Structure formats: C-alpha cells, structure tokens
Amino acid sequence: MRLSHFEKLRPVCPVCRLNGQDSPLALSTIEAEAAGDVQSGILACQSCGSEYPILDGMPIIVPEVRRFVQDNLFYLLARNDLTPAVESLLGDAAGPGSGLESIRQHVSSYAWDHWGDQDPAPFTPAPGGGRPGAVSRNLAEALDMLGDDLPDGPVLDIGCAAGRTVTDAAARLGRDVIGIDLSVPLARIGRRAVVDGRIDYGLRRVGLVYDRRSYPLGHQAGARGDVWLCDALALPFVAGSFALAIGMNVVDCMRDPRAGLIEISRVLADEGRAVLSIPFDWAGQVTPVEAWLGGHSQRSHHAGSPEAILDLLLSEGPLAAGSLRRTGAVGEVPWHVRLHDRSCMYYSAYLVVARKTVG
Hints:
The protein is of the alpha/beta class. The protein contains 11 helices and 13 strands. 29% of the residues lie in helices and 30% in strands. The mean pLDDT is 95.
C-alpha cells in the first residue's frame, strides 16, 4: 500500500460506513515497509475498533474482514514462490476441480488478456483469432467517449483483476488510480504488475499443463497506481472521492449490481464519470437471479432485456441508481476469455458512460 495514496484518499472504515458514519482508518502497525510502500501491517478504526490487515502490499478493507479471511484463507496463504517444476507436480496431484487449479486457470485467462501483448515470446493467437489486450482496447474506447471535462481527482478501477486498466488509466489520464478487486490471486498478480512492473504467471496450454511466463512490463504508470482488496458494495471512501470510476466486465460479477451502481455514484464527485463494460454473463452462484439486470422474467415489460434495465437504472425515475445518468450513445466492444491453447470464449460487452448529476 503506497503511503502517498493512503494519505491522499484517507480511507474510512467500511463497517462504520455501512452505519452511515465516515470513520477514518489509521495505520496502527507497520511491520514491513520500503520506499513508502507498506508491505505488511494493520489498519485500524478508532471508532469501532475494527482491524484490517495489509498483506503483500494489499490492504484488505472489507466489512466482514474475519469472514473474508476465513473464506479466502487458502488464497491468502498460497505460496507464490513455487518453481515451475514443483508447481506442475502439485497441480497434477491436486487435479482438476481443486482450489489450486481454479487459481491457475483464473490467473492464466486474465493475465494473458491483460499482459500477453507484452510477452516477448512468439505470438500465437487464441482459437478463433483472439489476441490479448481486449480489456485495454475496450478501456481506450471508453475513455475516448469521456470528453475533456473530468473534475479533478483520482480514479477508481473496480474489478481491476491483473492490473492493466490501472496502468492504462494512470498513463493516459496522468492521475492516481486505485484498483480494487475481491480475488486475492488476481489482485496479487495485478499489484506486482502495477507496482513492480513485472508479470509472472502460468499460461495454460492444455489440461493441467501450464507454461510459466515471466517478463518485465513496459507501462508508464510510475507511482500513480496501486491495488487494494475492497468490496464494490461497501467502498471504504467518503462521498465524492473520485473523478472517474472504471468497471470493465465487473457489474455482472457483483452480488447486487444496482447496489453497486449506487455505491459508485456515492464515491464520485459531482460531474464525475463512470465507464462500464458489461457482457451480462450472469452466474447464479455469484449474483442471485432476482438481482440480475435482465436475463430473466421475459414476461415483463422489459422482456428480460439487460440493456433496457440498465438504461432505467441510469435514468431519472424510481429505479435510478443514485445520481448516475447515461451520457451519449452506447457501444458494443469485443471481449474474450482464453481458456487454453484450444479453447476461447467470445463476448460482446455493452459499453456505457454515465455522469454523476448535481442536485
């Protein structure tokens, strides 16, 4: 956790925040720190006494921190210093469907898309011609739609995964960018990419076979980017903290998308913007069906259309998600998820820009 970002953003306790109180967090313990970057320590709320650990440079600032640690203990304690041969053997032993295999597949898909275009190895397209960098290209198109009148302030990248959108936004806008995610393995990979300028992951070739890819990155984010572990439904920031919120392929990964949009609206400054890319690829184990934006209840007036429901959320009316209002035309952007050398899933994501209105 960069001390400069902590001091500028002054994060607040998410427990108190959910109770309507903005209680600032204090850095109560520093156990490892170098060049203004806290690798290990504890943040504490002086109002309610809640404590939040800093692990591998990532502050874990979520409302139910004990439950988060219990649910993610395997990922939090997973070693990231395994040699390729030993990791391969362990992967074979754990087998398909294991927690280890879940990590490896997830990281492989996202790290390849975020950083595969900088891999010095000879390029091999994914099946169907897919090439890495889709999320970067989608963000570039979204930022082109913004205009030049963003208010002053930092940027919040929600669901930043392996970190490419953090560095792209920091380099293009020249602003501090905080990326947040709830996936410990992805956030760990992302922070190393953003802060240390290096990627190191296993790229799935087929089955349980992964090829280690490790190389330096050429991004220009400098000291402007960082990655924290936070919940998009309980952002640990006071109202009006950010000029821009980025959410690339994350709204349909929220437990409650409408609540997530309201929370985004809360932390945006007046006239701040949100750029959202959404494939509407719902999963029942993540988002209850009743919280989906479309994809069900086709007998209703919206006929199950996610685009129609999102438009209602970003318009005036009883369903409005806070003060966010859609601006300009919407777009469709291609996105794909590489599974292995012989498999790739393709999506068309709905791209929309919204503005936080005043009054």
